[in-house]
Amino acid sequence: MTRPTTPTLGLVVPVHNEEGVLPQLLDTLGSLEVGVSLTVLFVDDGSTDRTLAILEEACRQDTRMACLSLSRNFGQETAVAAGLQHARGDVIAVLDADLQDPPALLGTFIEKWREGYDVVYGIRTNRKESWGLRTAFKSFYWLLSKVTRTSIPRDTGNFGVIDRRLVDLINAMPEHNRFFRGLRGWVGFKQLGIRYERPARQAGKPSYNLSRYSRLAADAILSFSSAPLRIASWTGALAALVGFGYLVYILSLYLSGETLPPGWASLIVLVLFLGGIQLIVLGIIGEYISRIFDEVKHRPLFVTRTAVGWLADTDS
Questions:
Q1: Rounded to whole angstroms, how far apart are CA atoms 239 and 15?
Q2: Cα–Cα distance, 188 to 42 (Å, whole number)
Q3: ∠ at Cα 186 (176, 106), nearest 5°?
Q4: What secondary structure does DSSP assign to 258-291, as a single string?
Q5: pTM for the full predicted model
Q6: Closest CA relative to residue 243, chosen from 220, 216, 285, 272
Q7: Strand pairing category for 8-15 and 37-44
Q8: What is the mean pLDDT of each run of 10 residues along the chain (316 residues)?
Q9: How does DSSP assign 152-172, residue by residue?
């Protein structure tokens, strides 16, 4: 596909309570050279510290920068979606604010985009998180690869560049429980992963904790796979098979003339076993129903509080 001779790059940076790392991030972006014209869009996801004030001042000093402030904390995936809807450029990049994904690598991504790749994303190596978190990430990507037909590469994040045509396709998707990496893989086209060593966080504390990672994993699996429903059906079939086997066992004892066991303990075990399976199945079904409920309400993905920089000029 022919690329523009003088393309523009729109960089989307979702931020939430990142005042500790923002000075270093702004210095890095201010001197960043990627071989194309660059605009930066920060999406403040309801920060409660000085993040928004720092970004507004940066936007006043650098005309390439803009900031979209959301009315509350909607979550990183929604902040990315808001950025994609407002970013401008022939190619759009997404970068986390913590500088664990090196902005300088965007130049390499752009070169591959010029060669004809529609999506170029980073693949993380030698992660600096704790052993338990690394194990959880590996388990998540292994499970995701087993239950979904969408190609979602392992050890990837939102960091990467994506052609404007694909951004428009993703923006047209109305779903509320979004998983950007999955949507990026679902649209297909020509994609390439580039490996890089991911350093430790430069400053501040991560916004994501175990609970948020768990919700993100659930959104990823439930949005791109119906396997949990099939697993629930298989579990119900297995429980029925176990119950039938136990019935055969009791009948064989009765027909052979042996004294039947009192039965209280075995009955309680079976009741608890079947009751537990039923609750698990209902919980899985409930997760899907809750997502249907979110979709049918047709609420907007996010609510904007303020816009500064070139974005305010564009809106006006």
A1: 47
A2: 27
A3: 95
A4: PPPP--HHHHHHHHHHHHHHHHHHHHHHHHHHHH
A5: 0.71
A6: 272
A7: parallel
A8: 79 89 87 83 90 90 90 87 90 88 88 89 72 66 66 77 90 82 83 80 56 64 66 71 70 69 63 72 76 77 85 65
A9: --TTEEEEEEEEHHHHHHHHT
